[in-house]
Design brief:
alpha+beta; 8% strand; 10 helices; 53% helix
């Protein structure tokens, strides 16, 4: 039987109740992802995309073990619920929120992409450091290579079986879910999951992002999956789009360095200074 939205919320409520046993150690739990955005597809969407924030985490091993054991106890019923439970929550101590991942930070602070489940609203504390964009570029290049290289096995001459089709489509859904926010961060235009695709369309208006619309329509049941060849065509679109995006990110990075080295800028002016004693 296909689960209902109410089943998701019952599972989340159970998780929050069990985590409450941490008492004062628990500072807050933030929910993000499709459930927080009100875009759940029951039976397909992940059950729990959450951030657990505690007062302290690494001061002593016994305290760390207690927190991890409580998270495992809270996750065990979720894993047995029959709902799509893919991963445990992210765990941070409070002081780490001031040096947060630039890719996911905008989603956590956006009121239409996240939801406070319990505790104090710590979203105003979420910030990224100045090195975030550089790290986001590195993460994009690494993830693109690993993710896309593995998908190349699904291209012709492979004849896709039903199992191949299911696996490939799941990977395309993952692509649609994770890459827009990563690309926005790498371009220096961080955006929440809800707004990342719109941000990309505005930032790169000459690129075709219809691939993501097609994947979303299939996942929602608004159009059929179609023949195996059609799925391989979607994969080709994904490869072409990722190559074009990579070119833009590289060009953006090169432009940034050119600006820094141009005469008249702070870096350029410093490079033209005479050395002491010359």
């Amino acid at each position: 039987m296909t689960p209902a939205l109410e089943d998701y919320w019952r599972a989340v409520d159970s998780f929050v109740t069990t985590m409450g046993r941490l008492g004062d150690d628990l500072r807050g739990i933030l929910l993000w992802g499709s459930l927080a955005r009100g875009e759940v597809i029951p039976g397909k969407s992940d059950l729990l995309d959450a951030l657990v924030v505690v007062r302290r985490l690494l001061e002593d091993p016994a305290h760390f073990d207690r927190i991890v054991e409580q998270i495992l106890a809270a996750c065990a019923p979720l894993a047995e619920s029959g709902l799509p439970f893919a991963h445990p929550p992210n765990l941070y101590q409070e002081e780490e929120l001031g040096d947060f991942d630039v890719t996911f930070g905008p989603t956590l602070v956006s009121p239409d992409s996240s939801r406070l489940l319990v505790g104090e609203d710590l979203r105003p504390l979420v910030h990224s450091n100045d090195d975030g964009q550089v790290m986001a570029r590195c993460a994009f290049f690494s993830l693109k290579r690993r993710f896309m290289d593995r998908l190349s096995v699904f291209l012709p001459p492979l004849r896709l079986s039903e199992q191949h089709q299911s696996l490939l489509f799941d990977r395309l859904v993952d692509l649609r879910k994770s890459f827009p926010t990563r690309v926005c961060a790498a371009l220096g235009r961080p955006a929440s999951q809800m707004h990342a695709l719109a941000t990309l369309r505005q930032a790169l208006p000459d690129l075709d992002f219809s691939l993501f619309d097609e994947v979303a329509a299939i996942r929602k049941g608004e159009r059929p999956l179609g023949r195996p060849e059609e799925l391989q065509d979607l994969l080709r679109k994904a490869f072409d789009l990722m190559e074009r995006i990579e070119e833009r990110i590289l060009a953006s990075a090169a432009s940034r360095w050119s600006d820094l080295l141009r005469p008249g800028t702070q870096a350029g002016a410093g490079s033209g200074r005479a050395a002491p004693g010359s």
